[in-house]
Amino acid sequence: MPTFPSDKGILPPREALKGPQREKRLVLLVTYACQFDCRYCCVRRSLLGRRDMSLPHLLKAGDFLLSSSYPNLQLHFFGAEPLLLPFEKYRQFLPYIRKRAAEEGKNLRMMVTSNAAVVRSHWVDLFEKYGVALEISLDGAPESHNKNRPTVSGRDSYAGIAENLPRLFAAGIPMQVSMVISPQTAAHVVENFNHILDIGFRKLFMMVANCVTWPAESLRQLREGLKPLLDIYPRVMWQKGVRLLNLTDWVWPMRMNTELAVDSSGDIYSACVGYLARDPHLKGRCSLAHIDSVMGSYDYYEKLRLKNAQAMGIVFGESSALHTLASSAIAGQIMTEFVGKLRERVLAECKNASWRKESFSESRPLPLLHSLENRTRVTEPPAHDHKELHREALEQIRIFVAGKPSADQVIDFLNRFVGRAKYSARVFEVALHSLFQALEDRGALEGNLKPLARVRGEKKRQGNMGDVEVVQSSGTGILEAWDARYGRTYLRDELEEISDKLKNHPQIRSVGFVVDLDSLQRTSLKTEVLIRKKQIEDDYKVSISMLSFQDWAGKQLCRAGSGPDTLAGGWLIAFAESLCLLRPQRAPLEDAEASWPSELRDFAGSWMKPKAE
């Protein structure tokens, strides 16, 4: 196997600031068809022609990923343009893989990297229904984007993409942008960055073009073009909630995606070789297996994948490509240096209390700050192994569930744990939402469960009806909503808030408030509250409930055909995995408290100890 040329100075001696791997990813190279002719694209579309993955291979690839022992998995649809694979194949595959993931107890995240040119309403509905996120290739303002990414016929492509964005934003599909900086656009980095924010995106990854030669002047423009972002980004991070994914995901000046991939033909490769290798004979020798004849699990083949340097040696192994390699690596080094400086700037700015007060009216947790601090200190031994802590917490919960506790025991356990946990109100919200996660896993909901609000208070700013919302499968309206009201003893204000929101949700059938048990015991629902509740119910033809946690949980647990006791165990597992950040799509807890897993582990351990007589 070819090795990477030993050009010292082009690559660092080790992977820089590499963070922990949170999930195992399988890339599906579903088609080599594309309508664009991107100037920096390495995929040999013209040589390979139209070659689509068959449905049987697609189904087997999904099963292959689920054979992993890891709980957190990602399926990444890639190509050339993955949405040129016929819609019918996605329509059959997505419900299959969602059901299989639930059966295997896997937390599956799915993403499509697309140019978004063919996204129509039927694609939006499908992605919304099955929880598929989008990574959109968008290089900035129209002039830069069209310069980088013209159509095959040489026409501008930006307008067609912009036409599709409103329906994507309206549907609320999770999206991020992949913005590629090329030698032709290096002088316009800030303009393109700002344009992506102006049209509504809040997550983006900035890449430098790899498969092109970077002239010296373009390298200078890149270096100078990135500098203003050192001042711009910390501000927009707080004021607009922008997340530059480079800060936590960037490794190496040149990164080859070496995660496993299944090619459209069914061959399994390290991903980069699958779509970048130019020599078909060399590519054939790098195949690890064919999806029809795998002899082991995903984990087995994952150990056989290429290292970053080996992959670069294959992709750039031809002598004619060495100059491209050298200049692209220099561009990557400039980006890596910029990311390091920005990381330091963000840490310094976030720790400046006066700056934070000036930019934000309320104190907020700093999850990104904690993440950056952890990655900045990689040369120091970590104070505590969070992955190990999460494993211990989940192990205690699984031991408890294995003892087949009754529904009442699980309710009592959660009620008491919420009362002892740090930031009980937020943990209470997670407890309610995780019960509906368990219900959805068992197909006991009429619609789809919306993800939990990322941070406490976000639902109010976004006008949500509650912490738990079940929406129609089409995504057009809310069917059911429950709001957690921990420690509240008077619900009149909440009723007025609900009344105002119901004007915009005529299709809703039921709403309710869930109060922790002790609070409801202290609450005498006054006559005025009950009268107002009846007025709102009559005005909007809706049912409004005010329940204790115990009564609410008992009612919901009876919705599953398998019985409340069986569902209660799944609820407890969903709750623990949510607190341990293992369900980022359904419970994206950006304000998670680091002490929750240890609190849960210790509480579960003490709960199961024999009680002294």
Overview of the molecule:
- The chain has 613 residues and is α/β, with parallel strands linked by helices.
- The chain is 48% helix and 13% strand.
- The strands form two sheets. Strands 7-6-5-4-3-2-1-8-9-10 form a ten-stranded mixed β-sheet. Strands 11-12-13-14-15 form a five-stranded mixed β-sheet.
- The longest helix has 30 residues, at 322-351.
- The chain is globular.
- The N and C termini lie far apart (68 Å).
- Residues 1-21, 353-384 and 519-524 have low confidence and may be disordered.
Give me the secondary-structure topology.
Elements: E1 24-31, H1 45-48, H2 55-66, E2 72-79, H3 87-104, E3 107-114, H4 121-130, E4 132-137, H5 142-148, H6 158-171, E5 175-181, H7 189-198, E6 203-208, H8 216-226, H9 229-239, E7 243-244, H10 246-249, E8 260-262, E9 267-270, H11 271-276, H12 280-285, E10 289-290, H13 298-302, H14 308-315, H15 322-351, H16 353-359, H17 367-376, H18 386-402, H19 407-420, H20 424-441, E11 448-449, H21 458-461, E12 468-471, E13 478-484, H22 492-502, E14 510-515, H23 517-522, H24 527-540, E15 543-548, H25 549-557, H26 564-579, H27 596-607
Parallel strand pairs: 1-2, 1-8, 2-3, 3-4, 4-5, 5-6, 6-7, 13-14, 14-15
Antiparallel strand pairs: 8-9, 9-10, 11-12, 12-13
